[in-house]
Amino acid sequence: MDVQNLSISVGNNPIVRNVSFSIEAGKTLGIVGESGCGKSLTSLAIMGLLEGTQVRLTSGRVIFEGTDILKVSVSERRALLGSRMAMIFQEPMTSLNPVYRIGDQIVEMILQHEPVGRTAAMQRAADLLRRVRIPDPESRLKSFPHQLSGGMRQRVMIAIALASNPVLLIADEPTTALDVTVQAQILDLLEELKTESGMGVILISHDLGVIAQTCHSVAVMYRGQIVEACSTVELFANPLHPYTGGLIVSIPDAYSNVDELNAIPGRVPTIDERISGCAFHPRCHCAKDNCSTQAPQTIQRADHLYQCHYPLEASS
Ligand SMILES: Nc1ncnc2c1ncn2[C@@H]1O[C@H](COP(=O)(O)OP(=O)(O)OP(=O)(O)O)[C@@H](O)[C@H]1O
Ligand SMILES: [Mg+2]
Question: Are 214 and 189 contacting, i.e. CB atoms less than 8 angstroms apart?
Answer without folding.
Answer: no
